Amino acid sequence: DTGVSQNPRHKITKRGQNVTFRCDPISEHNRLYWYRQTLGQGPEFLTYFQNEAQLEKSRLLSDRFSAERPKGSFSTLEIQRTEQGDSAMYLCASSSTSGGSGEQFFGPGTRLTVL
Amino acid sequence: QKEVEQDPGPLSVPEGAIVSLNCTYSNSAFQYFMWYRQYSRKGPELLMYTYSSGNKEDGRFTAQVDKSSKYISLFIRDSQPSDSATYLCAMSATYNQFYFGTGTSLTVIP
User: Fold this and answer.
1) Average confidence (pLDDT) over B96-105
2) DSSP secondary structure letter of residue B8
3) Of A30, A64, A73, B9, which has the maximum CB count within 10 A?
4) Which stretches of chain A sit within 8 Å of chain B by CB?
């Protein structure tokens, strides 16, 4: 078990470009979460998947953001037409519904800088 | 009103001190509570998980939940310089969405 992994670790892009991030959860975990964190703030919830179903999405999430988890394993988060305000750390977390108590484990994050 | 309130600090203590970190919340439906430690530019690391009310101890860490007061605490005994980090509380009513505090920055001085 290597934990939650995220790629890339860093991404620098120009305003208006599209970016895509990938998250690989812990292998037996069927719950997957995306968060955004800016400096001096706690993680802000973006969206939640249970298996391949997207069950929750933040009302604050712009239409430029979309997430998928097509086979219930890895997930991607895409941001279209990036804006400077999208600069943040994007965190992925996973947990399990079976057996365990639901603790949520985070990946190392993808740091996005929009120029 | 924010769902979760956490004093951002910064908090500075001498090595060996007992540290008390706290969060308050407004949603009485919250029943899952977690504490995370986050080093600069890293992902949060899970420290403690508590379901409903009560205390939980793990080594030098003790988590307390008082649902009647909507108040949770994390105590760190015999604090070490390696404990210097930002501590985040997180909570949820269901597993669908978790709410985080802003984090408390802790420095343990050798």
Assistant:
1) 94
2) -
3) A30
4) 4, 31, 33, 35, 40-45, 48, 50, 55-56, 58, 89, 91, 95, 97, 101-109, 111
